[in-house]
Design a protein that fits this description.
Length: 343
């Protein structure tokens, strides 16, 4: 493990974000902890969210669900993808598993399975994403008929996923007819980008805003990535920095070599992105290496100087804007082994 490079995750900030989301939405929260909590690690955060009173955690697939269940998670664990038949028996072992029904094939297979206990289901409606879920009312109603044949199955939830805030109202209109077909007790549509506006449902399904990205005043970025230099070199005019002689040194300068590179998710396309040290912003120079990053610095910078790659002062959203991508991708692409959870 590289102890010079670290990632801290502030659980108090995640807790404050939880409270802020509940206050803004006036709804319960399904916490999205898929993809190892967007790359932040799923060994600590789900247990913390359970302690906050989270009733349902959402994961993408069976293996993610098992990781949480092996941590003795007792709150509901909703699998968003369709579940394979070979996994069905896990519901006999873990009563808190919740399966998604995304199509007629799911409904048919589940209708034939005899479980040892009641198994909760959430039905997904595709209202515009064209990814997973029912798109035709006739297929959906046929699925309800099939599922009703199995007394072991409990239809608990109905949900959809908005493609964007701009498309929310059109998708809500497509979703409303499905609400009239069955008395679901858990209805969830809105995610981080829409929970402030959508009135449909009694739950919101939120991931990014739990972790924060610097864009919203009521949400705190919970993550800091920092490091200490491996070296601070004095480089003379006429020399070059890094691979392919990419950076030409036009005047004498000091260059810090940070223990961070594209292996850690700091992509080559982030060349030129600033980092923080001593409350000053310094530009990265040269081609990003697999494990190293060059930064032009002042003479007073040493190997004892702490550098910040992202924090509340240099938020995720700035990196996302630099790459012309979404903040979700920034958290997911970071690969920092040394994770520290602050309580």
């Amino acid at each position: 493990m590289n102890n010079l490079l670290y990632q801290t995750i502030d659980l108090k900030a995640i807790g404050a974000n939880w409270d802020a989301i509940k206050a803004k939405s006036q709804k319960d929260i399904i916490a999205v902890v898929k993809s190892r909590c967007y790359g932040l690690g799923d060994q600590v955060i789900p247990k913390f969210l359970e302690s906050k009173g989270c009733k349902i955690l959402a994961v993408v697939d069976e293996q993610e669900a098992l990781r949480l269940l092996n941590l003795q998670i007792k709150t509901g664990v909703l699998i968003l993808n369709s579940v394979s038949e070979s996994f069905y028996d896990e519901a006999n072992t873990y009563p808190n598993l919740i399966f998604s029904v995304n199509n007629l094939i799911d409904a048919f297979k589940l209708s034939k399975k005899i479980f040892k206990r009641q198994v909760k289901l959430h039905v997904q409606i595709d209202t515009g994403m064209n990814r997973l879920g029912f798109t035709k009312m006739a297929d959906y109603k046929q699925a309800l008929t099939l599922l009703a044949q199995n007394p072991c199955l409990e239809l608990e939830g109905l949900y959809t996923h908005f493609t964007s805030p701009e498309n929310r109202e059109a998708q809500e209109a497509r979703f409303r007819p499905y609400l009239k077909t069955f008395p679901y007790t858990v209805i969830h549509c809105a995610a981080s980008s829409t929970y402030e506006y959508s009135q449909i449902g009694n739950f919101v399904r939120v991931g990014l805003d739990l972790y924060g990205d610097g864009r919203k005043a009521h949400i705190k970025q919970s993550v800091t990535v920092g490091c200490f230099p491996l070296a601070v070199n004095f480089v003379r005019k006429g020399e070059t920095i890094g691979y392919d002689q990419d950076y030409q040194v036009t005047e004498d300068m000091y260059v810090a070599v940070l223990p961070l590179g594209y292996y850690n998710g700091f992509r080559r396309s982030l060349q030129g992105m600033v980092v923080l040290a001593k409350q000053r912003r310094y530009e990265s120079i040269g081609i990003v290496c697999m494990n190293h990053l060059f930064v032009r610095v002042d003479q007073d910078v040493t190997t004892e100087t702490e550098f910040i790659i992202t924090s509340r002062e240099l938020p995720n959203c700035e990196l996302a804007q630099y790459l012309n991508t979404t903040p979700h991708e920034i958290w997911c692409m970071l690969n920092i082994d040394n994770k520290i959870y602050l309580e």
